[in-house]
Design brief:
The protein is of the alpha/beta class. The protein has 19 helices and 27 strands. The protein folds into three domains: 237 residues, Aminohydrolase, N-terminal nucleophile (Ntn) domain (Glutamine Phosphoribosylpyrophosphate, subunit 1, domain 1, 4-Layer Sandwich); 202 residues, Glucose-6-phosphate isomerase like protein, domain 1 (Rossmann fold, 3-Layer(aba) Sandwich); 148 residues, Glucose-6-phosphate isomerase like protein, domain 1 (Rossmann fold, 3-Layer(aba) Sandwich). Strand 7 and strand 8 form a beta hairpin. The structure holds 5-amino-5-deoxy-1-O-phosphono-D-mannitol.
Length: 612
């Protein structure tokens, strides 16, 4: 949610900031702005994408080797030029960019209005910069102290960078709840919401912790303090991200590139963790906590969106392979409903970004009750990765498209390896089943590759249904989460209303929706419940619904009933979600493209949801 980038150093700031904003645009894209300092502080903002900002400044003074920039996903105040960041203080000597939500902003705003302040925007951010300047003047303190005092009054989440005309050699950054990374370059500093704008300039980064303030000076001094003024020692991490992973690499969209990366990303998520010949499955990141998992009376999986769907697959896997009861919870519900959590519970938190605010809050709640928290994150060094006791990175590489694709299959891969590792050590899985599964997992990347070859056929099906107004997705067992994920993917990028259901639940309500205009996608690869899924398909057919079936290669029976059939390679039932998801990703992608939608930046969405 919202992208922050700031620069101080010897170079011209504007090109660095704009390039950074383009990298961060996936986080929010309803407006963008920049503030540059070269004697006086100049501020330019525009509604719309970063390219609108570039048009706006084409005839403006963009000089200066210190600046801050922002791309927004609106929370307070509609997306327009005025609500865009940065925001000025009343004197226009200070400017701020902010990611997060100041929950007590209306109380603070009323107090400031009573003292005679006037506001231009509807944002919580403008309140914060007014407050900082008010403190600076009335309490006669320096800017760092004013920021500290102000942040002590704030309730909520923030990642901010403040620039001041009176301090041309200094930037101040601070965070709580929303991420902020500082890049330490050659005689320069960058600050950003994630490392993607920094990677071009340096691999040395410092991740700010909650309630920390960084003071970045032009003489290359980095000071970190808490908002209570306690000195902290910066810990420098080395980035492992590769620059080419942030480009489209010849694909029309990041989403398509990421779909096609899956044979590689699944392999990467298994690398060093699986040796089928030797019969070894071992996840180094959780080794010290394996006994906790083996002895757990219960596993609670917390996540949001697509990661929650991966969690549902995890439920089936863990219950099948480890016989440990599993509950899968929406993090946003879990955190507010006084859940029963025991010290011997193991909580698995799944998140691509590692920054999802609800998942983070749910982790903190479970931690406070003494549970062990295991993370499955994609972004290295992210807040969730740091908040958990142990975990496994998915190693899928940066996922830029807002619709999650390769992160999902990597999450399911990690969950499969985890369940197999725990099940084999616990003795809840037979040796023959264990070997069958680990040998087959090794074949999955190749089978994904083969599944991707179906794209032309899927494109043709997409063409038939691009004008549909509704879609129903059905699946049973391991294919139920696949149906949910297929429906989510379609609705978020094509804006077609889509529902995912366990196939047998259809007759309890959704069947009323079926007529000759309703496309029904049925994931029908099941072995155990094949006959039952056939009956569900018959029920749809009897009501003239259009059936698009995902089946196993060589299927005979479903083919007789379905209007369109997509055949995926045969695999173990537990591994089907990885393969069956691929055609659904492609179907959504092609439908969205044919409808003229912006698949990488769908309306109203943002890649990482760092607000409630
Ligand atoms: O970064 P996370 O995995 O925690 O994000 C969770 C959801 O916000 C995310 O999966 C969202 O549903 C995606 N847009 C799905 O494509």
């Amino acid at each position: 949610m919202c992208g922050i980038v700031a620069y101080i150093g010897p170079k011209e700031a504007y090109p660095i900031l704009i390039k950074g904003l383009h990298r961060l645009e996936y986080r929010g894209y309803d407006s963008a702005g920049v503030a540059l300092l070269n004697g006086n502080l100049r501020l330019y903002k525009a509604q719309g994408k970063v390219s609108e900002l570039e048009n706006l400044v084409s005839d403006k003074d963009i000089s200066g080797n210190i600046g801050i920039a922002h791309t927004r996903w609106a929370t307070h105040g509609e997306p327009n030029d005025i609500n865009a960041h940065p925001h000025f203080s009343p004197s226009k000597k200070l400017a701020i960019i902010h990611n997060g939500i100041i929950e007590n902003y209306s109380t603070l705003k009323s107090e400031l209005i009573n003292r005679g302040y006037v506001f231009d925007s509807n944002t919580d951010t403008e309140v914060l910069i007014h407050l900082i300047e008010d403190i600076q003047i009335n309490e006669n303190v320096n800017l760092v102290e004013a920021v500290q005092i102000a942040l002590n009054q704030v309730i909520g989440a923030y990642a901010i960078v403040v620039i001041s005309q009176d301090y041309p050699d200094m930037l101040i950054a601070a965070k709580k709840g929303s991420p902020l990374v500082i890049g330490i370059g050659e005689g320069e500093f960058l600050v950003a919401s994630d490392a993607t704008p920094i990677i071009d300039y340096t691999k040395n980064v410092v991740y700010l912790d909650d309630e920390e303030i960084a003071i970045l000076n032009r003489n290359c001094e980095l000071k970190i303090k808490t908002i209570k003024n306690k000195d902290k020692t910066p810990y420098v991490h080395k980035l492992e991200m590769q620059l080419n992973t942030l480009e489209k690499g010849g694909f029309e969209h990041f989403m398509l590139k990421e779909i096609y990366e899956q044979p590689r990303s699944i392999k990467d998520s298994m690398r060093g963790r699986l040796n089928a010949q030797k019969g070894i499955v071992s996840l180094g990141g959780i080794i010290d906590y394996e006994m906790k998992l083996i002895n757990a009376k219960r596993i609670i999986i917390i996540a949001c969106g697509t990661s929650w769907h991966a969690g549902l697959v995890g439920e089936y896997l863990f219950e099948d392979l480890t016989r440990i009861p599993v509950e899968v919870e929406y993090a946003s519900e879990f955190r507010y409903r006084n859940p029963v959590i025991y010290e011997d519970d193991v909580v698995i938190a799944i998140s691509q970004s590692g920054e999802t605010a609800d998942t983070l809050a749910a982790i903190e709640l479970a931690k406070s009750k003494g549970a062990t928290i295991i993370g499955i994150c994609n972004v290295v060094g992210s807040s969730i990765a740091r908040a958990t006791h142990a975990g496994s990175y998915t190693h899928a590489g940066p996922e830029i498209g807002v619709a999650s694709t390769k992160a999902f299959t990597a999450q399911v891969t990690i969950l499969t390896l985890m369940a197999l590792s725990i099940g084999s050590k616990k003795g809840t899985i037979s040796t023959s089943k264990f070997y069958q599964l680990i040998n087959e997992i090794e074949n999955i990347p190749e089978k994904v590759e083969k599944t991707l070859k179906l794209s032309e056929k899927i494109k043709a099906i997409a063409y038939e249904f691009k004008d549909a107004r509704n879609f129903l997705y059905l699946g049973r067992g391991y294919n139920f989460p696949v149906a949910l994920e297929g429906a989510l993917k379609l609705k978020e990028i094509s804006y077609i209303h889509a529902e995912g259901y366990p196939a047998a639940e259809m007759k309890h309500g959704p069947i009323a929706l079926i007529d000759n205009e309703m496309p029904v996608v049925v994931v029908a690869t099941n072995k155990g419940t094949y006959e039952k899924v056939l009956s569900n398909i018959e029920e749809v057919r009897a009501r003239k619904g259009k059936i698009i079936a995902i089946v196993t290669e060589g299927d005979v029976e479903v083919k007789k009933l379905a209007d369109y059939v997509i055949e995926i390679p045969e695999t173990q039932e537990m591994l089907v979600p990885i393969l069956a998801t691929i055609p659904l990703q492609l179907l959504s992608y092609y439908i969205a493209v044919m409808r003229g939608c912006n698949v990488d930046m769908p309306r109203n969405l943002a890649k990482s949801v760092t607000v409630e």
